[in-house]
Amino acid sequence: MANISGIIKRIRNIMREDTGINGDAQRIEQLGWMLFLKIFSDKDKELEVIQEGYLSPIPAELHWDEWAGDDEGMTGDELLRFVDQKLFPTLSNLDLSTGNKRALMVHEVFDGNHNYMKSGTTLRQVINKLNEIDFNNSEDKHIFGDIYETILKELQSAGKSGEFYTPRAIVQLLTDLTDPKLGEKILDPSCGTGGFLTATIEHLKEKCLTLEDRKRLQDNVRGWEYKPLPYLLATTNLVLHDIEVPDIRFDDSLSRPLIEYRRKDRVDAILANPPFGGVVSNNNENNFPQNYRTKESADLFLILMIHLLKDGGRAAIVLPDGSLTGDGVKQRIRQKLLEDCNLHTIIRLPNSVFQPYASVATNLLFFTKGKPTKNIWYYQHLLPENQKAYSKTKPIQLAEFDTLKQWWKKREANEQAWQVDIKTIIESGYNLDIKNPHQPEEEKQYSSAELLDLLHQSFGKSDDLLVQLRKELA
Q1: Boundaries of every domain in the chain
Q2: What top-level class would CATH report for the domain 4-154?
Q3: Which fold has domain 160-427?
Q4: 451: part of which helix (H) or strand (E)?
Q5: Which of 229, 243, 364, 429 is least enclosed by beta carbons within 10 angstroms?
Q6: DSSP for residue 187
């Protein structure tokens, strides 16, 4: 396998010399469309061999190998004109009237992206470095994931590009514990770059024995994503994992009224890390029942996911501490979760799991729709010994969850695990932010309202003391 880290470093340095690239996020976008076309073209050639009568939606002269595959091929102004005036206009305006889904995929990728590079010479240098990666012959099934992780690590600050990245260990853990079955409909309504989708695909591939099994896999693993860059990366990711036509909808999951979803839209399992900390746009909160309307995206996604599950359907999701507590609409949403679903497990993660993209404390929630919650098991995941925090260079590792996986099958209370009954939860106002009773109490964190109240009480006591002092001095 090629030295991916070295190739990406070299590409980053080459792109820095180009005046058209402004910032790390644009470098990722530039790499994104190039990787997509290279991988898509390779898969197209494969399909032409194994499928009789297969016709690629990409015109022959626009396939990667035809214009980019020769390291001594066109360069400079000629290459730039070709990409800007021929490649992008043609691929973003493919004929979609035939209903060819692969044509639609290419159109959506190129209609939502741009060539940022202004020098055809540096563009040729980047292309030549990418040609060092042989996707077809690589034994590493996760090569695209490695490339993307490397990009995010090497580009020192990816700006908002980090917001749709979930550590691979978390993705794999949620997939392993949910254990998707062949024939089940699996959804990620905020799929980002496709981490949960590809983990599900790899999990199910082992169970595929026939061509019919493979078709069921392709038809039943689906994602929704509304940002062009992650949509592009997710689509590429699934093509690389042998999905001919990835079922990824380029759409905002919150833009559709909840009442429009029918029985056919229900799914068997949801694996997701919904966006949190964001403010809902376009008044999309009005697509939800009035009782649950909020501007907090994570809370609306929770309502959406409960709604989309079949009875007996299960979910494994990432949620921030902020969704586990709070009054008003937040409390009503938690009440609905606990009444409509069996929230059987909450895994509490250290604050630094999502560093450097977010420092907020997060949790993994596992629930099954159809029966109300009676008891919740909590499990506190601890940092490895002698490690103060996770970081880019020391991310969370799947092996750290070995103890949890053993506990999962045979649950007993211990220093990391405790159980809370629903009566206690209800009495606390449906508060799910329950600390480990076996750990020393942390210094209490007060809300702004609580701090103002304490300050007011303090001023009141000071006034009383002053009055008393004046009386004694009089």
Answers
A1: 4-154, 160-427
A2: mainly alpha
A3: Rossmann fold (3.40.50)
A4: helix 448-473
A5: 429
A6: E
pLDDT in tens, 384-430: 998 888 887 888 999 999 999 999 999 999 999 999 999 999 999 99
Closest by CA position to 257, among listed 298, 290, 223:
290
The three-state secondary structure class of 107 is helix
For residue 254, the number of C-alpha atoms closer than 13 Å in the C-beta half-sphere is 26
Q: Are 245 and 101 in contact (CB under 8 A)?
A: yes
Whole-number Å distance between alpha carbons of 113 and 88: 9
Q: Report the candidate in 378, 392, 365 with the shortest Cα–Cα distance to residue 424.
A: 378
Residue 346, SS3? strand
Q: Are 207 and 229 in contact (CB under 8 A)?
A: no
Residue bearing tokens 């409509």: 340
User: Are the beta carbons of 345 and 401 closer than 8 angstroms?
Assistant: no
Answer for the pair 190, 165: CB distance below 8 angstroms, yes or no.
Answer: no
Q: Are 154 and 13 a contacting pair, CB within 8 Å?
A: no
Q: Could you tell me the two tokens for 86?
A: 């021929």
Euclidean distance between CA atoms 358 and 352, whole angstroms: 8
Alpha-carbon span 216 to 102, nearest angstrom: 18
Lowest model confidence (mean pLDDT) among 48-57, 209-218, 242-251, 432-441 = 432-441
Considering only CA atoms, which of 368, 366, 364, 392 is closest in space to residue 380? Answer: 364
